[in-house]
Give the backbone structure.
Amino acid sequence: MRYFFPLALCLLFGIQVYAQEDVFLREQTADSLYKEDQFYIGVTYNLLGKQPSGISQSGFSSGYHFGFIKDIPINKRRNSAIGVGLGVSINSFNQNLLITETTRGTMFSVLDRSETSYTKNKFSSYMLELPLEYRWRTSTSREYKFWRVYTGVKFGYVFANQTKFKGEPTNISLNNKDVFNEFQYGLTMSAGYNTWNFYIYYALNPIFNASAKLKGDTIDMNAIKIGLIFYIL
């Protein structure tokens, strides 16, 4: 019996050391593999920049964004990374730019409420998107609530578009007109804490291509999207 307690203490000490080493090894392994692969969901209020004279927005213009971003850490602490993703977005713009189809092609004009009665006038785009980001965050392999700032560029391919006018003298609905720029790109930034993050996108090229003209001038309007984005591990 006199050897029982020393042996028991040695055994307990050995188990404790083994457990601590095991935890340390698991944490080191987790740190070596830690990354922020994420699904994202975003909701934005869409604005039109560089509006031609006479053009104005009305109502709420919305955007919905969904996708996945692959995280590639670039430093030992793994709080800096490059993110490459793939997603889709649906964007609408309510405004007073009327788009019609005539024998001369797609035409643009400005709606005047004093002359035309209408309840809806908007165009929409459906895009495949490729976000490319530099990502900084305060997270660790064990901390899931953290501050983040992600900046980068987003490339988009418009695979479908639609315009709708509801009013007098007749309703107009057009689909997949070639006056939209198929490829669109812009700067992005998202910043926030935990789930809630502010998001902004500023397009670097116009919504419409060079064939879209209003009173003989090219329509250089671009998209500005401001809202919230949610990241889900």
Remarks:
- The chain has two domains: 1-33, 35-232.
- The helical segments are 4-33.
- The CA atoms of residues 137 and 148 lie 4 Å apart.
- The radius of gyration is 27 Å.
